[in-house]
Amino acid sequence: LQLFTRVVSSKSHPIMLFLDDLHWADSASLDVLQYILSDIKGSSCIYIVGSYRSNEVLKDHAIFRLMNTLNTCNVRLSKVNLDGMEIEDVNHIISDALGIFPRICKPLSQ
C-alpha cells in the first residue's frame, strides 16, 4: 500500500480520503491507516481526514492509540473538536448551500 500511494500521489496530485465513523473501525483497519501514514521511505502525499463521535469512544479506544503512534512516528496530526450545532448554525449552512437568505430557509433548519 505504501508503494501504491507513492506511485499515485504527488504534491501536485495528492490523495485525500475522508473516513467517517472511525469509532466503528476495527484494530486491523486502523493498523492499515498507520501503515500508510507512517511511510518514511517514500514521498507519498496522502491526507486523511477522519471523524469519530467522542461520546461513543472510551479513553482506551484504538483511535487514540493510533494518534499516539502517529505522533511518535512524527506524522503531523491536527485534531478539531466540534460541538453540537445550534439551529442558527445549521440555518447558515443551508442558506449558503442553497444561495438563499437565512430567513427563507429557516423552516428547513428545524
Descriptive notes:
The chain is mainly α and 110 residues long. The chain is 41% helix and 9% strand. The protein contains five helices and two strands; from the N terminus they run H-E-H-E-H-H-H. The protein has helices at 2-8, 27-37, 62-72, 87-98, 102-105, and strands at residues 15-19, 46-50. The chain has a two-stranded parallel sheet with strand order 1-2. Strand 1, helix 2 and strand 2 (46-50) form a beta-alpha-beta unit. Helix 2 packs parallel to helix 3. It is extended, with a radius of gyration of 18 Å. The model has no long low-confidence stretch (mean pLDDT 87).
Question: What is this structure's SSE topology?
Answer:
Elements: H1 2-8, E1 15-19, H2 27-37, E2 46-50, H3 62-72, H4 87-98, H5 102-105
Parallel strand pairs: 1-2
Task: Please outline what is shown here.
The chain is mainly α and 110 residues long.
How are strands sequenced across the largest beta sheet?
A: 1-2
Rounded radius of gyration (Å) = 18 Å
- The helix fraction, in percent, is 40-55%
Total helices: the number is: 5
Low-confidence spans = none
Instruction: Determine the strand fraction and express it as a percent band.
Output: 5-15%
- Give the SSE order as H and E letters: HEHEHHH
Question: What kind of sheet is the major sheet?
Answer: 2 strands, parallel
The count of β-strands is 2
The overall pLDDT, averaged over residues, is 87
Give keywords.
5 helices; two-stranded parallel sheet; extended; mainly alpha; about 110 residues; about 40% helix
